[in-house]
Write a structure and sequence with these properties.
Helix content is 25%, strand content 22%. With 448 residues, the chain is of the alpha/beta class. Strands 10-9-8-5-4-14 form a six-stranded parallel beta sheet. It has a six-stranded antiparallel beta sheet with strand order 15-16-17-22-19-20, with helices on one face. The protein has a three-stranded antiparallel beta sheet with strand order 1-2-3, with no helix packed on it. Helix 5 runs parallel beside helix 6, helix 8 runs parallel beside helix 9 and helix 9 runs parallel beside helix 12. This is Collagen-binding domain of a collagenase.
């Protein structure tokens, strides 16, 4: 298993919400764009060597946050056979003088810190809480244990909940949130909801909730038969738009969109699968709508499917984690982060008025725009024409270019006068996955 104890963990900048209450920043005020990966079963299924391999891969691809379950169930044990709890009771973590479940968690958390990676720790997944296996009294003891154990590690973010409605066992979730908040003032806290919900539905006004996350989920437009106010289909940008209207203002982003390689709707393994085009679309749509980050997911990676698993994995997974970490969408996510941080980030606002009236489109033809004072980005998923309204960013002349979300490359188009509507025709044919970002920047004034 290697050494039982970890050297002093590397200190990463603590994270906080920015003064405008829309984005995340470091304690020094530097912009922090959350680029997450769902490594849900990292603590329970990976050896130390495998964990390091995974961490190295995610660091190389530009990820900076890993969303991980501390306990998938009250029966949780790791790959070495170490149980997390005594008698399946979250109030009784099983601690040993030699190796144990918690020292394994410590090791991975510290290895992540050495690579500049933050861990968004889900204390316990929602299923067993909903099933009545965790009381509020037990939850308070367990959350106290977690806060005291990890409050001095700089790379922790608390992600309460776990694919669950907050209204299911709401007293337990508030107990966990309030206990973490009272005992650990250093770290941000959020809540991971079930599909097609945002944490704002239940906890927006709770003091312990630092920022909102939503799970846009894995259903396509036809499959989303949700009733009422959360009926958004694939339009994940609507969650951000909705959260932005709430008071007090809090950051929001998509912490679980459709995973690369997972079937539409999850359960029919013969259904069409979400691919690299889809994970890009969900990313650019939600971030340009105002999201403070984005979490990518991969079907085989999120369950850490290993080579000794002979049966097909959950949701029809047939790849292994060590191959799936290199699926194309995973490598393309870094370009979104790079683009957002390439311009003054904290002044950015969503602004659909950049797009000429009547041309915004819907569903896959939807165009989404965001801007700062002297720059703007407009995303098209299908490569259809973009008509830009003048005067929305500063400068008498504007430099226009195409940004390729598949490669991160930028190609100059032209410089034009910022006085009339301009039409832009992206490269290639109009089709799903021919996505582009139109980048507009105030042209520098040249003195003669």
């Amino acid at each position: 298993m290697g050494g039982l104890f970890t050297a002093k963990a590397q200190e990463l900048p603590l994270l906080k919400v920015d003064a405008g209450k829309r984005y995340l920043v470091t304690e020094k005020g530097d912009p922090f764009f959350w680029l997450g990966d769902t490594g849900w079963l990292l603590f329970s299924k990976m050896t130390r060597e495998e964990a390091v391999q995974y961490l190295d891969n995610r660091k190389a691809k530009g990820f900076n946050v890993l969303q991980v379950m501390v306990l998938h169930t009250v029966k949780a044990a790791n790959v070495y056979g170490d149980s997390a709890l005594v008698g399946k009771n979250v109030a009784r973590p099983l601690l040993k003088k030699t190796h144990d479940y918690w020292k394994h968690v410590d090791y991975i958390v510290d290895q992540a810190a050495q690579r500049g990676l933050y861990i968004a720790m889900v204390p316990i997944w929602g299923s067993d809480v909903k099933g009545g296996l965790v009381t509020s009294k037990q939850a308070k003891v367990y959350a106290t244990f977690l806060a005291n154990r990890y409050k001095n590690r700089s790379n922790i973010i608390w992600m309460n909940g776990g694919d669950i409605k907050g209204s299911d066992s709401i007293q337990v979730w508030n107990t966990i949130g309030n206990t973490l908040y009272q005992l650990d003032k250093r770290h941000l806290i959020t809540f991971h909801p079930r599909g097609r919900y945002s944490s704002s539905a239940w906890f927006h006004n709770q003091r312990w909730l630092s920022f909102n996350t939503f799970q846009s989920g894995h259903r396509n437009y036809v499959q989303d038969t949700s009733k009422g106010e959360w009926h958004y289909g694939e339009d994940n940008w609507k969650y951000v738009e909705r959260d932005f209207k709430l008071k007090p203002a809090k950051p929001s982003f998509d912490a679980e969109p459709s995973y690369e390689g997972i079937p539409h709707g999850l359960h029919d393994t013969l259904a069409k699968r979400w691919n690299q085009h889809d994970v890009r679309r969900y990313g650019y749509w939600s971030v340009f709508a105002g999201g403070c980050g984005y979490t990518y997911g991969d079907n085989a990676v999120m369950q850490m499917r290993k080579a000794d698993e002979k049966e097909t994995g959950a949701y029809g997974a047939h790849d292994y984690w060590f191959d799936a970490v290199n699926d194309p969408g995973a490598g393309q996510m870094q370009y979104l982060k790079q683009l957002m941080l390439s311009k003054p980030y904290l002044e950015r606002v969503p602004d659909q008025s950049l797009i000429a009236p009547g041309t915004q489109g819907e569903k896959y033809d939807y165009l989404v725009a965001t801007r700062g004072t002297s720059y703007a980005f407009i995303y098209t998923y299908t490569g259809r024409n973009i008509n830009v309204v003048p005067g929305k960013i500063s400068g008498s002349h504007i430099n226009a270019s195409w940004f390729n979300p598949r490669t991160g490359e930028t190609t100059a188009i032209k410089t034009y006068s910022n006085t009339a509507v301009q039409a832009f025709n992206p490269p290639g044919e109009v089709e799903e996955g021919n996505d582009w970002v139109l980048v507009l920047e105030s042209a520098p004034i040249v003195s003669l």
